[in-house]
Design goal:
By secondary structure, the chain is of the alpha/beta class. It has a single domain, classed as Rossmann fold. It is 41% helix and 14% strand. Strands 3-2-1-4-5-6-7 form a seven-stranded parallel β-sheet, with helices on both faces. Strand 2, helix 2 and strand 3 form a beta-alpha-beta unit. Helix 1 crosses helix 8 and helix 4 packs parallel to helix 6. It is globular and about 50 Å long.
Length: 250
Amino acid sequence: MISLDLAGRVALVTGGGQGLGQATARRLHEAGASVAVNYFPDAAGANRQRAEETVAPFGERGLAVGGDVCSREHMEACIAAVKQRFGRLDIVVNNAAIIRDKTLKNMDDADWQAVIDTNLTGVFNVCKAAQPVLAEGGRIVNMASISGVVGFFGQANYAAAKAGVIALTKVLSKELARRKITVNAVAPGVVMTEMAATIPDEVQQEMLKQIPVGTFGEPNDIANAILFLCSDLARYITGQTLHVNGGWWA
């Protein structure tokens, strides 16, 4: 029998209170893992609420833990909290991301830096903090994007950050290989999440014409790919970017 059993393993999913992160957290829990969901500690507390609601059904195998991925100190504290609660760390899914879409003409320094800091430096910070703690044979899965390969109009910051994630993934796969830790990326196409909902309808329709399977992705389509990369079935796959986009190559 082929198994995707993650029983006894501990996963951290950044930005796991909604969208792709939430779907991934749920899928890893369904496979038997204990799952910590990281959230950005916003002043209103909405992110914390979403994270706590996500892990509530997980019982003792769930933990909501705050921390800004842009801060190394926050991530070190976050990972320390995960280890204190569960005693180990086996899987890291770098999902936290933001968008600030504007053309180069209209993009100011703050728009550029915020996206780079969260979407690229954030991945570096999490990996840097996690690597001393990750168990041998562990898994890191970084969320890239079709935008980092194709490059969409108005996404200079986002596309650059996601392309950087793909390159960082390749480097880390070599550096962590001696500990049998695999490092891969998943590059979604357009997936029906809150982030995708910000795309104007007319733009969505033009995008849909370029997807051979004829539909946008669902969060579980991405979560299933991540689950595979976290499983024992993927032990010999590292440094790769798995494109989950319905065949879209514009």
